[in-house]
Design goal:
The protein is an alpha/beta fold. The protein contains seven helices and seven strands, in the order E-H-E-H-E-H-E-H-E-H-E-H-H-E. The chain binds NADPH dihydro-nicotinamide-adenine-dinucleotide phosphate (NDP). Pfam families: adh_short.
Length: 245
Amino acid sequence: SISTIKDKVVVIMGASSGIGEATTRKLAEEGVKLVIAARRENRLKTLVESLPNAKILYAVADVTNKDEVQAVVNLAVEKYGRVDVLFNNAGVMPTAPLSEKRFDEWRQMLDINIMGVLNGIAAVLPIMKKQQSGQIVTTDSVAGHVVFQQGAVYCGTKFAVRAIMEGLRQEERENNIRSTLISPGTVDTELHTTIKDPENRERVENLQRTIGLQSSDVADAVAYAISTPETVAVSEIIIRPTKQV
Ligand code: NDP
């Protein structure tokens, strides 16, 4: 069993910006073997090119497509022979009042934030069971604990992910598979760009820019969570900007 983070094989979904990009950089620095994925190929390519000494591959994948997610995981197995950690980090946050009836955005949040996580779990579970070892890390949120303004559906997806990850923990602990939630408060990322309403988007962007954590702060939490011995399961790390309500 591997107890140091160096040489671990880590797959990151949603690695093209923000928390996923910062985690890629942090883990690459630590000598982790990486396969990173997202939809924007140009961003993945630029990121990989900026890490010339890293053991890293990228693949284009949409987390709502289970075959594409499986292909990313399979690439890690083909290239490195195993998967130690899956980081389910992809997410969108098009917040709006329920009364606006934005069916497309509701569907998008359910598909990416919930089904995307389930597709990741489904892709790695058989492999990790065979290994009798593995860790699934998922980015949840403070929004998985409290419901904020215009966030009914987004927070709903993050509450759901917390339940799913706790169920995973209960079901797979005997197989030595660990379930970890990383739950940040506001982080200064591109997440606000998924909000359609200009006023709401600006409000969230302003909050991210003024008090938000840096993505690297969250990456440090991920690195810690995957650095513990196999007998130690970090179930959740909640990390807020000090000034956040
Ligand atoms: P970003 O918008 O910077 O990053 C989101 C990442 O998810 C991108 O890499 C994006 O890549 C990827 N992504 C989105 N949709 C898909 C998809 N369908 N398939 C594959 N990848 C996808 O924001 P953050 O870094 O902030 O977001 C990362 C996670 O952190 C999300 O789960 C978010 O909910 C969570 N979070 C963020 C907080 C914040 O304040 N920023 C607070 C708490 C939690 P691409 O578009 O290239 O596919």
